[in-house]
Design a protein that fits this description.
The structure holds 2 protein chains of 2 kinds. Chain A is 71% helix and 0% strand. By secondary structure, chain A is an all-alpha fold. Chain A has a single domain, classed as Fumarate reductase/succinate dehydrogenase, transmembrane subunit (3 helical TM bundles of succinate and fumarate reductases). Chain A is extended. The chains are: A mainly alpha, B mainly alpha. The interface between A and B is medium-sized, with 21 and 24 residues.
């Protein structure tokens, strides 16, 4: 009885600003936390995503407004910033998609070895960042 | 097997781990399939894609059917995922309740808007 009642020690001295940046995450850890961040980002920007769906699809006139948002800007927001936001969404989608496929593959294959975790995480990071760079260059008119 | 009903019923957390786990994977699979289907249509559209071509992709009835399903899958997927984030980082019950309500309202509004855009096309 006394054993159960005894309070277990709690360690709550982790400071988000001074401690967390000193932690060195393995590749799989980066994939994991970025899966969260990308998901939350797309959740918060969902109205913008639907606005893009709405304007791009509803009529010729709204389609022109959609295109103009990324060149002339939207309201007080300049076009280059809209492109930057679009680029963030492109990254978020690519990362979430590829990391998600990695999850599904691991579930189906029972591929839970340490080596596979590391190598597949590296593939996820290289693919998502690489594709983001390629599409970003296209978005900003580099080619 | 441990008893999980009556007075022994688990009433903490999401409480339905396996269902949420499975839902997350099934909805993800559906959205991944949708991504591939949309991408293939964009890639195999001849010539530059303007309004006509882009809207034409979504105008097909089967595509509306699929897109509608994907919107619902997305809604459910995001609810499970975002709620997990709140449950991991936000401990005060009051704040968590507010965030849960915000999430539901945000998602319901977004889903309504997206479905309206889709079905008036």
């Amino acid at each position: 009885m006394t054993e159960l009642a005894k309070k277990r020690p709690e360690f709550r001295n982790i400071n988000a600003l001074s401690d967390l940046p000193t932690y060195r995450l393995p590749a799989a850890g980066w994939v994991s936390i970025m899966h969260r961040i990308s998901g939350l980002l797309m959740f918060l920007l969902m109205p913008l995503i639907i606005w893009m769906f709405d304007t791009s699809i509803s009529s010729e006139i709204s389609f022109a407004r959609f295109s103009a948002a990324f060149n002339a800007g939207l309201g007080f927001v300049p076009g280059w910033f809209m492109k930057l936001v679009a680029l963030a969404l492109i990254w978020a989608y690519l990362h979430h998609f590829i990391a998600g496929v990695r999850h599904l593959y691991m579930d189906v294959q029972h591929a839970v070895s340490k080596e596979f975790g590391k190598s597949s995480a590296m593939v996820t990071l290289v693919l998502s960042l690489g594709l983001t760079a390629v599409l970003g260059a296209k978005l900003f008119g580099l080619y | 097997m441990s008893v999980n009903y009556g007075s022994k019923r688990t009433v903490v957390g999401a409480g339905y781990g396996f269902r949420d786990w499975l839902v997350q994977r099934i909805t993800a699979g559906l959205m991944a399939l949708f991504t591939v289907v949309l991408l293939l249509q964009v890639i195999f559209t001849a010539g530059p894609i303007g309004y006509e071509q882009w809207a034409g992709i979504f105008a097909a009835q089967w595509m509306k059917f699929l897109t509608f399903g994907v919107i619902l899958a997305l809604l459910w997927h995001v609810w499970v995922g975002v709620r997990d984030i709140w449950m991991d980082y936000v401990k005060p019950v009051g704040v968590r309740l507010v965030l849960h309500v915000f999430t539901i309202v945000w998602l319901a509004g977004c889903a309504g808007w997206a479905i309206q855009v889709l079905w008036r096309l």
